[in-house]
C-alpha cells in the first residue's frame, strides 16, 4: 500500500507540466546521442548538467535520467539501419539487426527493438521500485567498515569487467583514487596536494573531468579519421512486428529482461555486458544457432531488451548504496552532488519526492520513447548523415559553455581541456577511462570510511573480518582478483614447463 | 611514426611510476598519522604505492613480452590527421582568453568559423560565415538571454 501511495505521489510530480517537458527533452536528447556515433550518454549527461542549475533537484534528475535510458533506444536505430552502433550497448544488435535490414526487414527489427526496450525498461523500473526501498533500509545499518568493503568490491568488479587488461584497469582505478585526493581534507580540513593552486582547493571538479575524459577525447578520436556511412535509402515499412515475430521473440524478451536486470545490479557490468550475454544466451538456447548473424529476430529482441532493463536496474545501487555502476551513472552521481543531494541509503527517506518522481518519470519516458522512436525513425537516420565536420565544433562549443557555466570561471574550461587531452592519450595508450572515473568518484567515500574504520578499530584490519557483509564483499573481491592472476600464473608455469 | 605495443606499455608505465613517486613524496610530507589515526597524507600515499607497484608490474610484463612477440600497433601511424587534432587542442586552450577579450558572441563565431575553414575537409567561405554566424547568434540567445549565463562582455560589450 505504501508503495502504491508513493508511486501515485510520484506520478503527481512527474505529470507536472515542466517535468513532463523535461522528461521529453531528456529522452529526445538521449535518443539523439544514442543515434550519433562517438557521442555516448556519459558525455551527453555531463554536457547538460550545467544547464540544470536553474532547475529543482527532481526536475534536473528527471531530465538527466531520460538521456541515459533514451540513448539505449537511439543506439539500436543506427545499428539496424546503417550498421553503426550509436552506443556501445547496441554493438551486438548490428549482427542480426543490420542483416534483417539488408533483407528488407528493417521495420520488424526496429519495431521489436522498440517494444523489447519498452518491456525491458518497464520490468527494470518495477524491480527498481520494489527492491530499492527495502535495500536502502537495510543499507542504513551499514557502518564505515561495510561501506568501505562494498566500495572496494564495486571498484574491483569495475576493473574486472572494463575493457582491456585487468592490470591496466587496476592502475586506472588507483589513479582515480589518487586524483580524488587534492583539496581540503574531509576530516581535518587541511589542504592537501593543492601545490598552492587555489582552483585545486575544492578538488578536481567531476563534471569538467568527465566531459574531458568522455566527450572531448571522443572528438579527438573522431577527428583522426573520416567516418564512412552506408546510407540506408530503402523505405521502412511494416514497423509493427507480426504475430510470428512476437511468438519467436516473446521468450527472448523475457530472458533479456531478467538477464539485463541482474547485470544492471552488478557494478561495471551494466547495459553493454547485458546485451552481449543476452545474445550469447539466445544463440545457446536457439534451435537454429547457426542462423544467428544472418538476420534472426531474437538476436535483436534479446539484447535490446537486456540493455534497457540493465539501465533501469543500474539505478538501484545508486539510489540505495550511493554506488555508481556505470560511467554514465557515475556522472549522474556528480549531478546529484551538484544539486546538494547525496545518493545513498538516506536518499529515499530524505528525498521521497525525488525518488518516486524520477521512477514515475521513467515509466512515462519509456512510453514517450516508443512513440518517439517508431514514427521518427527516418529523421534519426538523417541525423547520422550529418557530416562530422559540422557536428564537432558544435559539440566542443557546447562543452566549453557547459564547463564555464558550472561556476562562471575559466578554470573549469581548463580542467575540461586538460582531461580531454589526458583522455585522448589514455585511449591511444589503451587505458580505459571508466575505472579512473569510478575510482575518482568512490575515492572520497572510500577514504573517509577506511579512516573511520581504522580509528574505530584502533588500527586493526582484522575488524573487517568480524562483520558478515565485509567478509562477503572482501571475499568476493579477493576471488575476482585471484581469478585474474590465475591465468597469468598458469601461463608462467606452462612456459617454465616447456622450457621457454 | 610507428610505436610498438610494448614500447607504449613501457612509456606509460614509467610515466605512471614517476607520477606515483611524486604523489608519495608530497603525501609523505603531509601528516601521515598512524594506522590508529590516519592523517591527511595516509590515503594518497598508499594509493601512490599501489599505483607504483602496478606500474612496475606492467613495465616488467611489457619488457618480458618483448622477447616473445612484438605486436605492431598501427594506431599511431601516419594515417592520423594530426593537424586537425593539434589545431583543436590549441583552439580549445585559447578559447577562455578569447572569451575574456572578445566576449561570447564574437569568440563563438570565430570558434565555429575557424574549425569549419581550417580543419579538413575545409568548407566554403559562405558556409563558414553563415554557419558561424547562425550558431553564434542562436547560442547567444539561448545561453545569455534564456538560460542567463553571465559570459564576460569583452571589449565589444556583447
Write the layout of secondary structure elements.
The complex is a heterodimer of chains A (500) and B (158).
Chain A: H1 2-14, H2 17-35, H3 41-48, H4 57-82, H5 93-102, H6 106-139, H7 144-161, H8 166-179, E1 183-184, E2 191-192, H9 206-223, H10 243-265, H11 270-285, H12 298-313, H13 315-321, H14 327-338, H15 347-350, H16 352-373, H17 377-384, H18 388-407, H19 411-428, H20 433-456, H21 468-497
Antiparallel strand pairs in A: 1-2
Chain B: H1 5-29, H2 42-68, H3 82-118, H4 125-146
Short description:
Chain A has 500 residues and is mostly helical. Chain A has 21 helices and two strands. In chain A, helix 6 packs parallel to helix 13.
Descriptive overview:
The complex is a heterodimer of chains A (500) and B (158). Chain A has one domain. Chain A has 21 helices and 2 strands. Chain A has helices at residues 2-14, 17-35, 41-48, 57-82, 93-102, 106-139, 144-161, 166-179, 206-223, 243-265, 270-285, 298-313, 315-321, 327-338, 347-350, 352-373, 377-384, 388-407, 411-428, 433-456, 468-497, and strands at residues 183-184, 191-192. Chain A has a two-stranded antiparallel sheet with strand order 1-2. In chain A, a hairpin with a 6-residue loop joins strand 1 (183-184) and strand 2. With 158 residues, chain B is mainly α. Chain B folds into 2 domains: 5-76; 82-146, no CATH class. Chain B contains 4 helices and no strands. The interface between A and B is large, with 54 and 65 residues.
